[in-house]
Amino acid sequence: MNVTIKHSYRRGEFHQFASSDRRFLYLVPAGAIFEIDDPAARVIDRLGKGTASHQELMEELAAAGMEAPDAHELIGELFGARVIGSGEIAPTALANPPDDFPLQSLVMNITNQCNLSCTYCYEFGQDKIATPQGKPKYMDLATAKAAVDFLLKQSAGRKAIHITFFGGETLMNFPLLKDIVTYAKEKTAAEGRTVDFSLTTNATLLTPPIVAFLSENEIGVTVSMDGPAELQDKRRVYKSGKGSYAVVEPRIRHLIANHRTRAITARVTLTDGVTDVVRIYRHLKDDIGFHEVGFAPVTSSSEADYAITGKDMDSVVAQFHALADEWLEYALQGRMHGFTNVSDTLSELIQGVNKSHPCGAGLGLLGVGPSGDLTPCHRFADADAHTLGHVNTGLDRAKQSDFLTKGHINAKYDCQTCWARPLCAGGCHHEAFVRYGDTGHANLHYCDWIRDWTDKCLRIYGAVAAHNPGFLEKFAERKALS
Ligand code: SF4
Ligand code: SF4
């Protein structure tokens, strides 16, 4: 029996890219990458000129020499994979995570005190949202233990949990950190589970005994550092205004030489006048010896005097591309490159990430401040307006739900037609609050940059998939490092 198919087809929702003479689609509803062959490309190109009936597509494929049964099957496959569709394109609504989504990571702000006064710091600078008045400056042992107990309870069902120590300057409360590492290891072992630790530090207080402890306990270390002396000392300064490079440089060299159990990474904050990405990378990776270096433009309102403006941002983008090209050269030779920004994005693409929320904040990850207040992440520490409960009394589910509903991709109207949304999902909640006064607002100031960067990493994916596909396996299970 002949069945007449009356569908009128249109293109599905995807981003096309080419790499190494091959054509690919990044399919938005699935967050997945497909290489397309000539017949599929023919269908897509035909639909690029406007809608077409089933019969018209069949004729298009017949003209290319395809037998009718094969053409019919191909159209069905493309339809099933949502590469082509019929009717209006309606963005696929991603489901809400379940209410009892288990916690995995706790970021413990073990102090809100810092021995530096970095002028762009979100905790102390112009965009500060913390309200620390009347609250403890250092987390005490009882609160820290309660935080670990809270994490264990809320992560029931997960074999492995993660604790990140944060500040202020984390190492200003090193005695507590030591106690908590011991406590968390004992408690998790008693439950037949494992715990993994990391910390972020400005490196000013690193000493040989601290480094030995971090290495023995396999604690991952991210150092906040902005590059060679003249760049580091622009904004990473002591309260006196004195730069910190001379203090941190020998300490970091000691850390890298003696912390043998985990990779040591640098995180650079780009600000006005600190935009020399390639030079910073060379210094931190090749001279100092960091395993990886990741960059992020400062989070700030557009008026902040340290914000990066138009022309400088263009230069940052160009330098990101130059380092990304170098990353690709290394990959094609089977060598790892240390530019974190490519490695992190590529791993998300390979894992087919399709986010309902931009990050784990408020979901699989929570922050806990020195007082024991729970927040969506460390950047909201001590900010009363963003508290989601307390480690002693538990999560306020109504507040958590409100935060997550606002931050869900479905609630971000501007993102509904954006092909980059599986990875971006509107961007950082904290940055959204600083910029727009609303944690659920899409970070529309950087959309062009996000789409450009995602496209760059897709093309890197295509080139590696064509010439050294086994190399991609290294990123299949990678978690973002910073
Ligand atoms: S914030 Fe911009 S780049 Fe990100 S998903 Fe929304 S529209 Fe796309
Ligand atoms: S992306 Fe923003 S909201 Fe999410 S964890 Fe990082 S700082 Fe917090």
List the helices and strands and how they pair.
Elements: E1 8-11, E2 14-19, E3 22-27, E4 32-36, H1 38-48, E5 52-53, H2 54-63, H3 68-80, E6 84-86, E7 105-109, H4 141-154, E8 160-166, H5 174-190, E9 194-201, H6 208-216, E10 220-224, H7 229-235, H8 245-258, E11 264-270, H9 277-288, E12 292-297, H10 310-332, H11 340-350, E13 365-368, E14 373-375, E15 389-390, E16 394-395, H12 397-407, H13 421-424, H14 429-436, H15 447-467
Parallel strand pairs: 7-8, 7-13, 8-9, 9-10, 10-11, 11-12
Antiparallel strand pairs: 1-5, 1-6, 2-3, 3-4, 13-14, 14-15, 15-16
The structure holds iron/sulfur cluster (2 copies).
The site of one iron/sulfur cluster has 8 residues, from α14.
Explain how this protein is built:
- By secondary structure, the protein is an alpha/beta fold.
- Helices cover 38% and strands 16% of the residues.
- It contains 15 helices and 16 strands.
- The protein has a ten-stranded mixed beta sheet. It has a three-stranded antiparallel beta sheet with strand order 5-1-6. A three-stranded antiparallel beta sheet has the order 2-3-4.
- It starts with 7 loop residues before the first strand and ends in a 15-residue tail after the last helix.
- One iron/sulfur cluster binds next to helix 14.
What's a quick, concise take on this entry?
The protein is of the alpha/beta class and 482 residues long. It has helices at 38-48, 54-63, 68-80, 141-154, 174-190, 208-216, 229-235, 245-258, 277-288, 310-332, 340-350, 397-407, 421-424, 429-436, 447-467; strands at 8-11, 14-19, 22-27, 32-36, 52-53, 84-86, 105-109, 160-166, 194-201, 220-224, 264-270, 292-297, 365-368, 373-375, 389-390, 394-395.
